[in-house]
Design a protein that fits this description.
alpha+beta, Alpha-Beta Plaits, Chitinase A, domain 3, Trigger factor, domain 2, 3 domains, five-stranded antiparallel β-sheet
């Protein structure tokens, strides 16, 4: 096999390949032998159809199949022989395949770019605050209390105010005519700003018990009921009951309901949870900040196939998260094309940034030592609350260990950039 490798650009190579006539003949012989075992023709026993008959009837199909096989195998061999860093599927051009004749074709494919980090010192980065103060802890505990709130009848007043939960009857018409879902009895809504279709009815503020009120409401343009989406209907509402949320007292009994022995223990746990969340978000934000700054200072061509694979990875992660939450993505009517395009900018940042961090790691001779691996195992164990032995078991294969080393080197490169950055 003869191979000539040419650079079309920094991210594309053209392989001109010529496959020996002997290989072509072997592939044709194999293809016809397999076909003879499969086809049934009148007058011939299974597996005994002469090749000349098969050629008369199936030459076009067989040669097209052999071309695909010859191209694929020869391209794989050429990529290995010439150490071509292919990152995408080849695009083939070639002539007709002829028995007893060498077959020549070209394969154009995207390759991993040779990235050089020319500038990484003095990048302007954002200072990220991860502090968790008492106010944030109180806010989170109040959310926990709200999740355990009970509804009790309002006493001492009969006028609705913002924040009340109201029980109502309603009737609605559009152009004087009823429509699907136009009546409701004993429906609970909140007296709060927002959309009626989401259970918010600010129009109730100031109404008295048993009072009736009529008002117009325009349905959202994407409302699920076709007959009224984007249209205005007249609603007549009767206020029947007023209720208010009662939060449980913040005491040791409430703390025990949340899995803590005392209020102080609950506050400490909530603060620790918030700090872990803040740390995780800060790491994500800091990474994106560094990647964008590196990309801005070190532009290079990036293969589209790598970005597409980055989108695939992000999409798999998002769908996996949904499924772990008990949501079937197939039931969401997702626009997959739009979803991929929405993910593209972030995927491109990740792909370009990872290539730059890899190049910086090589240039600065950054490595992941055995001590680094042990420290990372302990960090992952602490952050996830998983025993150290289980964390190490997850990285039991050489491939997983190598991937973790890549991650450690990336983190070292990231730290190096931040060490020489300016913050504001």
């Amino acid at each position: 096999m003869k191979v000539q490798v040419e650079s079309v650009s920094s991210i594309e190579k053209r392989l001109s390949i010529e496959v020996d006539a002997q290989i072509v003949n072997q592939e044709l012989s194999t293809a016809y032998a397999q076909l003879a075992q499969q086809v049934k023709l009148p007058g011939f026993r299974p597996g005994k159809v002469p090749r000349r008959i098969l050629e008369q009837k199936f030459r076009t199909e067989v040669e097209a199949d052999v071309v695909k096989r010859v191209q694929a195998r020869a391209t794989i061999d050429a990529i290995k022989e010439h150490d071509v860093k292919a990152v995408g599927e080849p695009f083939y051009t070639g002539g007709k395949l002829t028995p007893n004749t060498a077959y020549a074709f070209t394969a154009r494919l995207e390759v991993k770019p040779e990235v050089v980090v020319k500038e990484f010192k003095g990048l302007a980065l954002k200072k990220i605050d991860t502090a968790i103060d008492d106010a944030k802890v109180t806010e989170q505990i109040d959310r926990l209390r709200e999740s355990r709130a009970t509804l009790e009848a309002v006493s001492g007043r009969d006028v609705a105010k913002t924040g009340d939960m109201a029980v109502i009857d309603f009737d609605a018409t559009k152009g004087g005519q009823p429509f699907p879902g136009n009546t409701g009895r004993n429906v609970t809504v909140e007296v709060a700003a927002g959309e009626l279709v989401q259970g918010n009815l600010p129009q109730l503020e100031g109404m008295k018990l048993n009072e009736q009120k009529t008002f117009d409401y325009t349905f959202p343009a994407d409302y699920r009921v076709e007959e009224v989406k984007g249209q205005t209907a007249a609603f007549t509402v009767t206020l029947k009951e007023l209720k208010e949320r009662k939060l449980p007292a913040l005491d040791d009994e409430f703390a025990k309901s949340q899995g803590a022995d005392t209020v102080d223990a609950l506050k400490a746990r909530v603060k620790a949870d918030l700090e872990r969340g803040a740390k995780s978000r800060a790491e994500t934000d800091a990474r994106e900040d560094v990647l964008k700054a590196l990309i801005a200072k070190n532009p290079f061509e990036c293969p589209n196939s790598m970005i597409e694979r980055g989108i695939d990875y992000m999409l798999d992660g998002a769908l996996g998260s949904l499924m772990r939450s008990g949501v079937d993505p197939r039931m969401l009517n997702l626009d997959w094309g739009k979803l991929r395009e929405d993910m593209r900018p972030r995927a491109e940042v990740e792909v370009r940034g990872s290539l730059l961090l890899e190049a910086l790691g090589k240039a600065e001779k950054l490595e992941a030592s055995d001590a680094d691996l042990e420290a990372k195992y302990e960090e992952l164990s602490k952050d996830s609350g998983t025993p150290l032995s289980q964390v190490k078991a997850r990285f039991g294969t050489p491939e997983n260990v190598e991937n973790l080393k890549v991650r450690i080197v990336e983190e070292k490169a990231m730290a190096l950039v931040r060490q020489h950055a300016t913050f504001s």
